[in-house]
Amino acid sequence: MVFLRINKQAYYKTILGGCASIGVMAIMMTIFITNFITFIQKEQLKVITISEYDDKVDQIAFNNSNFLFAVQIEQDNFIENPYFNITLNQKVYSRSQQGDLQKRTESIELVPCTLDRFNQIFAENNVNFHQQFQQLELQNFLCPSY
């Protein structure tokens, strides 16, 4: 068996190596503690959105009979005591014949989702949505009130 020994020692330690190890550990601990505090205080929220636009858009009118979506933040007791308030604003842009752009913003209230609202949409296609509603726990989500 061949051993590599320096000054008759199996391990070679230097002051520089020890200081570098302590420095790296201090930096790693600082990063971890800072990220942990940011997470606990909910200072930073990352949201990823993808927007795709079609050049040939017809006039679309969303209502209870053709469109419904549900929104939730994963937390206990979201409906009664949410960490964040979710708002929904609808913006309508129209251009007059003179070329003036008119902007209108409407706030849409979000209310707890009910099975009846989903059944209005799925009943037209003879789909029973009860099982999916229970499985996804959609009663704990918010839906627009339009």
From TrEMBL:
<protein>
    <recommendedName>
        <fullName>Transmembrane protein</fullName>
    </recommendedName>
</protein>
<keyword id="KW-1133">Transmembrane helix</keyword>
<dbReference type="GO" id="GO:0007131">
    <property type="term" value="P:reciprocal meiotic recombination"/>
</dbReference>
<feature type="transmembrane region" description="Helical">
    <location>
        <begin position="15"/>
        <end position="40"/>
    </location>
</feature>
<keyword id="KW-0472">Membrane</keyword>
<dbReference type="GO" id="GO:0005634">
    <property type="term" value="C:nucleus"/>
</dbReference>
<keyword id="KW-0812">Transmembrane</keyword>
